Sequence to fold (162 residues):
Amino acid sequence: MSASDALFPPTGADQHYRALERLYASAPVNAKFASALHIPGEGRAHLTFTITPEDYHAAGAAHGTIYFKMLDDAAFYAANSLVTDRFLLTTSFNLFFSKPVRAGRVTAEGRWVSGRRRVFVAEARLVDEEGDEIGRGTGTFMRSRIPLSSLPGYAADGPSGL
Fold:
């Protein structure tokens, strides 16, 4: 729990956003990535990632899997910020690469576009340290049968909870 949370505990939507951030941090796959998620508000998500040589393909720049992971995660969490009862699933994702990145901090900015019932559309863009866009993606996400409350990372008393 942060000092700010001790003085002003999150309520309502902010509680959901912090729980989604814990869920992201608790996913085993994210132990392989130097990344952090922040959800500043409804329909938005920011993911920061540090590119290192371990992320390179044979030609010495970040592999496309890194672009996909960051874009998909940012768009996914932007969409799931609107859903408080179910975990969403990615059903499709289109990806566009515009510039290679070799090292440094990259930010994925996710934004919900449309849908509030069963299918959600969200987009994300990747920005390097110089502020240049290096990639963009759009995904569709649908409600699963998995309750968010059943996922240990989402619950406040889970392994990475408060």
Summary: Residues 158-162 have pLDDT under 50 and may be disordered. Residues 40 and 82 are 12 Å apart (CA to CA). The chain has three helices and six strands. Residues 64-80 form the longest helix (17 residues).
